[in-house]
Amino acid sequence: MNVIIIEDEKPSARRLQRMLQSLDLNAEVLLHSVEESIKWFKNSTHPDLIFLDIQLSDGLSFEIFEAIDIKSAVIFTTAYDEYALQAFKLNSIDYLLKPIDEDELTTAVKKYQERLPKKQAVTLDFNDIKKLLVNPIDREYKKRFSVKVGQHLKLINIDEIECFYSENKGTYLHTVDGRNYLMDTTLEHLQDELEPQTFFRINRKFFVNINAIKDMVSYTNSRLQIKLNSYNEQQVIVARERVKDFRAWLE
């Protein structure tokens, strides 16, 4: 299988390359910008599969497809968890949320390999997906959540929540008064329900409320450690691959 990676952050591209090697996939070509990618596609045989980052250093990667008629299958790699990613599920083989998880990468590759013998064309409506990324759709985000306390249901307003986190296969919310409540949902489901200007997914285990951030400290491996007003049960670390987007979100 001929595979390429289009990713502007070179350490992330090399990490994905190593992860693919462990799945016996060799991605020899790493491209890092819209301009570089267009030049490469004009002069090279198109691959079977592209791992495509959305935001490149010189623009959105959809510009590549506006310039070149590409028939390759696509698996998106994206940090846009705060947007309506259903478009990716409907139009592409899969999408992988950064930082990329090995199990999710394996699942996405298997999904591609299963449909490969059928030679199904992958139809991508890049204009529709681009609109979602550039102009997120207007929608009503959740104002409150219900949690079960014994035999009772308790309503918690969104402005009372410092963070959402996963632990031991459960999803919890932590309130400003220091209480934790088990929820009947997942972090993946929450990403479509939380207002993106208020909540940010800093890693695979945490969404944090911007209003609950007390301090931010440099941490090992170019990461950031977040101090919240009341939550202190485990370290809250911004994943290295998310630091750039996190800093932009803060502003």
TrEMBL record:
The keyword Membrane does not apply. SUPFAM superfamilies: CheY-like (SSF52172). Residues 2-113 form the Response regulatory domain. The modification 4-aspartylphosphate is found at D53. InterPro entries: CheY-like_superfamily, LytR-like, LytTR_DNA-bd_dom, Sig_transdc_resp-reg_receiver. It comes from the Bacteria. The keyword Phosphoprotein applies. Keywords: Phosphoprotein. Residues 145-251 form the HTH LytTR-type domain. SMART domains: LytTR, REC. Signal peptide: none annotated. This is LytR/AlgR family response regulator transcription factor.
